[in-house]
Amino acid sequence: MIARTLFTAFKTSILPSSSSQLLPLFSSSPCRSVTTLVLAEHDSGSINAASLSAIAAAASLSKHTSISLLLAGSGPSLHQAAQHAASCHPSISQVLVADSDKFTYPLAEPWAQLVQLVQQKNGYSHVIAASGSFGKNILPRAAALLDVSPVTDVVAISESRQFVRPIYAGNALCTVRYTGADPCMLTIRSTSFPVPAKSIELASNKSAVSEVDLSMLDVDSIGKSRYVKQTSPEAERPDLANARVVVTGGRGLKTAENFKMIEKLAEKLGAAVGATRAAVDAGFVPNDLQVGQTGKIVAPDLYMAFGVSGAIQHLAGIRDSKVIVAVNKDADAPIFKVADYGVVGDLFEVIPELLEKLPGIK
Ligand SMILES: Cc1cc2nc3c(=O)[nH]c(=O)nc-3n(C[C@H](O)[C@H](O)[C@H](O)COP(=O)(O)OP(=O)(O)OC[C@H]3O[C@@H](n4cnc5c(N)ncnc54)[C@H](O)[C@@H]3O)c2cc1C
């Protein structure tokens, strides 16, 4: 019975297309021309999904916006990514490439100086990055160098200088108007700016790719941070921030060993694994899996929460999920107030039943 209820949630949220998504408001500012610099992240020769969302946000600033994409790095994968960038969205007019071993790893200090250099040369009206660790690290530093205040965590664009952003752990939305000097610098939540399928297909027109002149950049004198190493999850799982299905475990799992049930279920569903802060603090999983106000913001088609109470800080990260399923043995747990499907029951009975009865989607 429980498995059937949850299978219904799984079917209705995953199987149909998600064409009913609300798109951010579109409006153009009649009096100012909009020229936007998007700070892009690339991986294995492609622009990553969050940066594609930043491009989608930039394209919604104005009907006649001109977008330049800034990529930095070194070696062949940078130039491969530049070719991908040149054809990944029809609104991109130019791809700027900063090729130097100083940019092999995305350290904030040289990147911030690069943004300052490019901005001073080209005078963009807007600078945008996705609100991930890359954008949150670089954009505020660049804003300080350019002496402007950034607007962070934008979830909708109502005019080219008017934005909506969450406050009070996502319990209220605030509309802000930027009245400062150019550039207007934004970080955007990628979950709020879905990438239209057609922009993922390669655009027929390739935009120009040009190298940034780095002779004025004194990168040797900068850098309080140093690259040490990058660790990636071993298993091939979808990226938590962009996954269509997320399976999350909370303190109710009790041990790291038990948490493996969540991983098994996620594997079966082709889902990303998430965790509450309590589960992370208890050492069940590393903190890059934390979902919530101080973790990742997710907006999957299906969010499944096991042994999660539903604290406001956790809910702040899952509000945009299309279907929320909660399993908790406490009928009064706050998670049930936001859940579309709820099971009051013991997760140690429910998960094994799901593992047995749910079909895999791989
Ligand atoms: C500034 C600040 C920022 C924070 N940021 C975040 C954040 O980003 N993300 C986040 O998650 N939290 C965050 N927190 C912490 C948050 O307030 C909660 O403490 C946390 O979310 C609780 O995690 P939990 O639901 O796993 O644990 P608990 O609140 O302890 O809930 C465990 C739940 O498991 C249920 N349970 C137990 N055993 C079983 C069982 N066998 N079967 C079924 N259900 C069972 C219980 O009924 C309970 O509801 C933040 C807190 C602060 C102050």
TrEMBL record:
The keyword Endoplasmic reticulum does not apply. Residues 36-221 form the Electron transfer flavoprotein alpha/beta-subunit N-terminal domain. Pfam families: ETF (PF01012), ETF_alpha (PF00766). GO terms for cellular component: mitochondrial matrix. It is found in: Mitochondrion matrix. FAD binds at residues 251, 276-277, 290-294, 307-314, 328. One of its GO terms (molecular function) is electron transfer activity. InterPro entries: DHS-like_NAD/FAD-binding_dom, ETF_a/b_N, ETF_a/FixB, ETF_alpha_N, ETF_asu_C, ETF_asu_C_CS, Rossmann-like_a/b/a_fold. GO terms for biological process: fatty acid beta-oxidation using acyl-CoA dehydrogenase. It comes from the Eukaryota. Binds 1 FAD per dimer. Keywords: Electron transport, FAD, Flavoprotein, Mitochondrion, Transit peptide, Transport. Its cofactor is FAD. The keyword Transit peptide applies. PANTHER family: ELECTRON TRANSFER FLAVOPROTEIN ALPHA (PTHR43153), ELECTRON TRANSFER FLAVOPROTEIN SUBUNIT ALPHA, MITOCHONDRIAL (PTHR43153:SF1). The electron transfer flavoprotein serves as a specific electron acceptor for several dehydrogenases, including five acyl-CoA dehydrogenases, glutaryl-CoA and sarcosine dehydrogenase. It transfers the electrons to the main mitochondrial respiratory chain via ETF-ubiquinone oxidoreductase (ETF dehydrogenase). Heterodimer of an alpha and a beta subunit. Belongs to the ETF alpha-subunit/FixB family. This is Electron transfer flavoprotein subunit alpha. It comes from Cucumis melo var. makuwa. The lineage of its organism: Eukaryota, Viridiplantae, Streptophyta, Embryophyta, Tracheophyta.
